[in-house]
Amino acid sequence: MPGEQSPREALPDKVTEAAEAAPADDPRKGAAGEAEIARLDDQLRRTAADLDNLRKRYQRDLDRERSAERARAAIAWLPVVDNLELALQHADAGAEVVVEGIKAVHQQAVAALERLGYPRFDPAGEPFDPAVDEAVSTLADPTAEPGTVIAVVRPGYGTPDALLRPASVVVAKQ
Description:
alpha+beta; about 15% strand; 4 helices; 3-stranded mixed β-sheet; elongated
């Protein structure tokens, strides 16, 4: 990044500083000790550079995967957009034709969400599950078991493991 030091430049020369601060009779002060210090210093700097390169490569891979996933989602929605445009072109053809077109586009949209891993679910008649359902109201219903979903206000999308949106439901009460 501009204005940022590389890890090689940013690393303080601690190993060399420690060697210079060593007493004169220290065995690390000899030629062999200085060579070892230089080798370790070089190894440290190379490791830091490798780590920086790995971080940059990971960021590039992550950006590439995000871009590819956005493209896959957009491709899933293109037929829906195309058919909405067709429906708008034929809007003056009559209400019945427009309604049939809207139904077809709706089915395509639901299918696109399913292909992306978020199938539609309608929990009517099932026991209320707070993990995938959102109770928006309760209603006394003598024909339904208490705690049962008696109406779906808005369907949910996804699975218990990957929930995009919970179902908004009306739950039977005592």
